[in-house]
Design a protein that fits this description.
homodimer; alpha/beta; Rossmann fold; 10 helices; 6 strands; about 50% helix; NAD(P)H dehydrogenase (quinone) activity (chains A, B); Flavoprotein-like_sf (chains A, B); electron transfer activity (chains A, B)
Chain lengths: ~230, ~230
């Protein structure tokens, strides 16, 4: 699966959350990030034919942005307005996945009836759900990052891996799928990534094996629970 | 009450629904219509200070647009992003009313669970509800015009007056308020508006009086019902 991330931010360079997310996926060969504002500034208005050709080459599309006035920045709507085709042409784009990666300056509990925002993120972003429906795309769960700058270091690294999982698999919420994803990533760690001596490498390998066993045991327990 | 209509359409001149709406309010002294795209094209990017100064002069703000990809055209988000202030500056704008006049190419019943769009117009446009909440504005009921071009002539004239009522009073759904609005408009019809001979004028005046009586009787009946 190839993923296209369309990043909508007026100035990506000054956004700490967007810079962090970019650093989290820069080594992934199947992931392409496009800075929409940067492209517009350097190459001029979006060209429908070229944008559609690029879109065709990907299986998963991700709109990534900081929520501003409860919506994406205008540059994303500009892209939608210029690029997306209606009617029979739309059918050529069917079968993809659509994900949203949304950073908010206020904490998650405000997005609820009675909260400061008063509406859920699902409601505020429902136009993208209808868009996915129109194009026959699978609408993925929204990846919500609330108050990034207040996160502790450990939470940021957890976020980094959940975000990688979302971008590469479309899933970040299932603990089972996330565990599988982490094990695969750990198995791919070579001496090049982790230049440590033989003893520490044995310890690392033992940790990975142990984590695999814990993961397998949890999966079995979960299956038993399901059978109850 | 002074009303500012911010019209968001890439080409207002070619939109039959927008041209119809414009013609419906052009004689109203307390209503100002701004074609955002036209202003951007002729005067360049929105200037926050000037836009805020204009906004301050109005009590009711109306965003008017054709729904495109389940959202307003990007020009409106562009205006929001550039113009609206956060924090303490936002307090200077408190107490206004916010209305939305939204034209859709598909009929109203598709905006529902299980419908073609799958989401209600209230959900799709919920970012404006949260915006109104943020600025302490009264969020008016959405004025929804579905498939304007398929409307019969009579329906268009009904729409014209409901739209005028919405723009001038913020209300278009209450039959009582709409009746009051029509009576007031009929009472203001002079010989200049209706250049007819004395006999026809008598008939017209009799009709207006009759309509006032019917309206008053309905209001009394409604009050009785309320008391049951």
């Amino acid at each position: 699966m190839k993923t296209l991330i369309l990043l909508a931010h007026p100035e990506v360079d000054v956004s700490s959350s967007q810079q962090f997310l970019l650093s989290a996926v820069e080594d992934l060969a199947n992931v392409t990030v496009v800075d929409l504002q940067g492209q517009l500034t350097s190459q001029g208005p979006f060209q429908q034919a070229a944008e559609l050709e690029r879109l065709q080459a990907y299986d998963r599309l991700i709109f990534q942005f900081n929520l501003y006035w409860y919506q994406a920045p205008s540059i994303l709507k500009n892209w939608l307005d210029v690029v997306l085709p209606e009617g029979s042409e739309a059918k050529n784009l069917a079968g993809k996945e659509l994900g949203l990666v949304v950073s908010t300056g206020v904490s998650a509990h405000h997005f609820a009836s009675g909260g400061r925002v008063g509406r859920t993120l699902s409601e505020l972003l429902s136009p993208y759900e209808s868009l996915a429906r129109y194009f026959d795309w699978t609408y993925l769960p929204i990846f919500h990052i609330a108050q990034f700058s207040y996160l502790k270091e450990e939470a940021k690294y957890e976020l980094l891996w959940r975000y990688r999982a979302y971008v590469e698999t479309g899933n970040y919420q299932s603990e089972h799928a996330f565990g599988e994803y982490l094990i695969k990533a750990l198995q791919e760690v070579t001496a090049e990534h982790l230049p440590i001596n033989a003893t520490y490498r044995r310890i690392f390998e033992a940790f990975v094996m142990h984590y695999e066993e814990v993961h397998a045991t949890n999966a079995e327990l979960y299956d038993l629970m399901e059978e109850w």
